[in-house]
Amino acid sequence: MNIKEYISSGILEQYLLGNLTSQEEKQVEQMMSKHPEIRQEMFSLSDTLEKMAMQSAIEPPQGLKDSILKEIDPKHIEHRSVPKSGKKGQRDLILPALIASLLGLCIVGFIAYSCFRGKTRMNEQIESQNTQIQTLSSENQDLNTRLESATQNLNIMTGGEYNQVIMRGLPISPQSFAQVFWNESTSDVYLSPSNLPTPESGKQYQLWAIVDGAPVSMGVFDLPETDFALIKMNSIANAATFAITLEPQGGVESPTLEAMYVAGNVNS
């Protein structure tokens, strides 16, 4: 069944009037979420039914209110005489008119309520769909950001513009391993702390470069949550060796040699 046949089947009108089962209502809501034409038709039908309900309202006969009040007036009931045939005929007309008016009001109320209920369900469905779209959009943006970062890291590690310096574990932690990617032309430095133990509380790793025999701090860092992540460190123009020590939080001015975990020479 195509969209035009689905719309002309009458199921949308039954949805607005509340005549469908819960399973059928879910199917209609799924169709609305997938097809904007069906959703637009639902809004149009809802407005049309509301207008029809108001136009179909039965206006009570003129003077009906005064006649009813007169009939239920206690004073009138206590002192009235036996009604003449003309007044009896008038009362005989009042009751059917009253019933017709009340029936018309009930019909109008039912249609208005059904339209309101259908619109409420549609709005809830649309709001739910918008929330899902926003969630998916946010997740997609996050994936794109991570993809761009991974692509950039891959270019740094394999592009040939960066000199790879391997830093192997020292006696304090033989299993440790890290890498520095240093662009000698731009002085940019990226660190890959591939395998370093989790530091204890109050401690932080610090990268050092040995320049002309003296240590130069390249900044402190925390271990990344993902593997193969690169951390942008301070730039350096000349370096012969890179090393990592474990220092108090925030780093120190001079490295603690006894807490040096990895080290590696440039072009080694």
Give a description of the structure.
With 268 residues, the protein is α+β, with helices and mostly antiparallel strands. It folds into two domains: 3-154, no CATH class; 163-265, Immunoglobulin-like (Sandwich), CATH 2.60.40. It has helices spanning 3-8, 11-16, 22-34, 36-55, 64-72, 74-79, 85-158, and strands at 163-169, 177-182, 189-195, 203-211, 214-221, 231-233, 241-248, 260-265. It has an eight-stranded antiparallel beta sheet with strand order 5-4-7-8-1-2-3-6, with no helix packed on it. Strand 4 (203-211) and strand 5 (214-221) form a beta hairpin. Helix 3 (22-34) crosses helix 4 and helix 4 (36-55) runs antiparallel to helix 7. The longest helix has 74 residues, at 85-158. The relative contact order is 0.09.
Overall pLDDT metric: 79
Beta-strand share of residues: 15-25%
Low-confidence stretches: 76-91
Major sheet details: 8 strands, antiparallel
Main attributes?
Immunoglobulin-like; rod-shaped; 8-stranded antiparallel β-sheet; 268 residues; alpha+beta; 2 domains; 8 strands
